[in-house]
Amino acid sequence: MTTLARQPQMTQAPTTDTPKVAIAHGDGIGPEIMAAARRVLDAAQAQLDTTEIAIGKTVYEQGHSAGIAPESWDVIRASDAILKAPITTPQGGGYKSLNVTLRKTLGLFANVRPCRSVAPFVPTKHPGIDCVIVRENEEDTYAGIEHRQTAEVTQCLKLITRPGCERIVKYAFDYARSHGRKKVTCFVKDNIMKLTDGLFHQVFDEIAPLYPDIEAESRIIDIATAQLADTPERFDVIVTPNLYGDIVSDVAAQLTGSVGLGGSANIGNHVSMFEAIHGSAPDIAGQDIANPSGLILAAVQMLNHLGQPEPAADIHNAWLTTLEQGIHTVDIAGESTRHKVGTQAFADAVIDRLGQSPAHLQPVTYGSTPQAGAEQSAAPGTPTRKTHKPTKQLTGIDVFLDWDAPGRNPQQLGEHLQPLAGPDFKLKMITNRGVKVFPGGFPETFCTDHWRCRFTAADAATPTHAAVVALLTRIHDAGLDFIKTEHLYTFDGKPGYSMGQGE
């Protein structure tokens, strides 16, 4: 017998009024799978007060640059949840991602993606996978703050905040405790990004001791992803910054047999959003072949979050029974497939099996009772702010130049800059793409037209902002184009900036 050892739940206290849910049909295959999911919800007698809203490509084309009209924002803000089908976001240009806009605007700080096998009924090389990815959902490079600075260089700012780290790490441990999970693993790349990912790891290490009943470990994201792909059963709950979480949650979902099986919850303190993890697949839109499972399971997460565990379990068990009996859409068809069906026929099969439980897979039960003996935090995901405010001291400035003189000789640039440092600063180094090229650089180092010039205080005195302005004025008057500056601060005497590679 194949079992699902644990069934992750999204539960909170039931509300006295019928929950208000905004329904977004999305783009591509979105309307088809939403129709299927809504029919399943209705058949299971879920108690929902729904209002349809339009978002995505059609709204963009109507002139709303954010992909959502003001009246839809009003509906969402008055709702308890959003059930959203996939929307289309263009690659490399065009409008910004509405998914990111919704998450950040509404404070949907935690993306929760359960990934578990239903083997042998859906083919997979990893029948033991049963993990949950808890992804920070608002920060990191997904702030979307990008600039083209020179002819050859663009930048993207990676923003990691202490409150954001505290909130998501605490949420991950609260989730593990309340859902019978035994371990939380932190995925970071702080061997390279020592300040940003270093902060995430530091907060993880600070919070982990508050949960002595949960095993805690940290891994470097590259080897951790390789281990996830090879032996996913070693992981339980994974917590990670935004970009890594986006990638590893798709990896984990594919390991279950198909990303088409994955549902996703975006949890906020006011409204939460539930969606399939896959895209809008416009190439198969209108053909009635898309798998609605991801959105159906997202609806299950939504019902649990809204305090309706009975219809959630009924739908989930009917879905398991459908797969177990070999009724599959084309994307998951395999040796156990008896009936290959389309989108709506699959929904019909789930509806026909409401009230049934799987014979081989472990039936699902949902409820709000925490694991025996585990204390519950009063406010899951609430950051614990530190009361200590560190002493902040300015010690220098990084001046970024667009400099493209013939030969791009860093020695020439350094000799030009040194007399411009003035009485308050000294030129400590120049880097190109982070590598120190002056003083003492190597001719083998490739250089582009983007230079970081680090000026530090000439003596123990703290430079003034007036001194910084005077420095920039001298650089400008010398015919050099500064395109960005970053102040160098220490916090309680510790540098709040990274060294140059080779410094």
Topology:
Blueprint: E1 20-24, H1 30-43, E2 49-53, H2 57-61, H3 70-77, E3 81-84, H4 98-105, E4 110-116, E5 130-136, E6 146-148, E7 154-156, H5 162-178, E8 183-188, H6 196-207, E9 215-220, H7 221-230, E10 237-240, H8 242-255, E11 263-267, E12 272-276, H9 293-305, H10 309-324, E13 327-328, E14 339-340, H11 343-352, E15 392-402, H12 410-417, E16 425-432, E17 435-438, E18 450-457, H13 465-477, E19 481-491, E20 494-495
Parallel strand pairs: 1-2, 1-3, 3-12, 5-10, 8-9, 8-10, 13-14
Antiparallel strand pairs: 4-5, 4-11, 6-7, 11-12, 15-18, 15-19, 16-17, 16-18, 19-20
Helix pairs in contact: 1-9, 1-11, 5-6, 7-8, 9-10, 10-11
pLDDT averaged residue by residue = 90
Structural class of the helices, strands and pairings? Answer: alpha/beta
Strand content: 15-25%
Whole-angstrom Rg: 26 Å
Extract low-pLDDT stretches: 1-15, 369-379
- From the N-terminal CA to the C-terminal CA, the straight-line distance is 59 Å
Main sheet characteristics:
10 strands, mixed
Helix content: 25-40%
Count of strand segments: 20
Strand order of the largest sheet: 2-1-3-12-11-4-5-10-8-9
Instruction: Specify the overall morphology.
Output: elongated
Total number of helices:
13
Structure explained in plain terms:
- The chain is α/β, with parallel strands linked by helices and 503 residues long.
- It has 13 helices and 20 strands.
- The protein has a ten-stranded mixed β-sheet with strand order 2-1-3-12-11-4-5-10-8-9, sandwiched between helices.
- A hairpin with a 4-residue loop joins β11 and β12.
- The longest helix has 17 residues.
- The N terminus is likely disordered.
